[in-house]
Each structure stands twice: as structure tokens, then as C-alpha cells.
Design brief:
Layout: H1 2-15, H2 29-41, H3 46-82
Helix pairs in contact: 2-3
């Protein structure tokens, strides 16, 4: 499931490239949505929104890495069972 999300996100980033206000990096879809929606519901500064979006992105990357490691370990167990 995460592979499909990455493919979809990559296509979106290629078709509609987003750039940050400073021009240093390009935010992902979640970060840009959070930056646009958060001020509508909460009175927070741009710095807080940026920090929260980075933490969410970090959690998502961690989940993707854990999922990949789990799949790799399943493959190792299958190979060791055959031997």
C-alpha cells in the first residue's frame, strides 16, 4: 500500500511541483495542505506549522522504513525456512 502512495506522490510532485517560500526545499503534499488548512482552524504561526509538518513527515518516513524492514525480514525467514 505504501508503494502506491509513493508512486502517486511522485507523480503529483512531478506534475505540480511545489516550492517553499524560502525556495530551499519542496514540501510534500501533506505539509502543503497542513500549511494551508491549519490557520483556518488554529491561530498558529508559520514556524509552528512548519515544525508540525516536519514531525508528521518524519513519522511517515519512519513508518515506511519499518514497513520495508518488516518485508525484508519476512523474505529472510522464508529463505531460511527453505534451506
Amino acid at each position: 500500500m505504501s508503494t502506491y502512495f509513493h508512486e502517486h506522490q511522485s507523480i503529483i510532485n512531478l506534475v505540480y511541483p511545489l516550492s517553499s517560500q524560502s525556495g530551499n526545499s519542496t514540501p510534500d503534499l501533506l505539509s502543503s495542505l497542513l500549511a494551508r488548512v491549519a490557520p483556518l482552524f488554529f491561530s498558529v504561526s508559520d514556524v509552528v506549522v512548519a515544525a508540525v509538518s516536519r514531525q508528521i513527515s518524519l513519522l511517515l518516513v519512519g513508518a515506511i522504513i519499518l514497513s520495508s524492514v518488516r518485508q525484508a525480514l519476512r523474505g529472510v525467514v522464508r529463505v531460511s525456512d527453505v534451506i
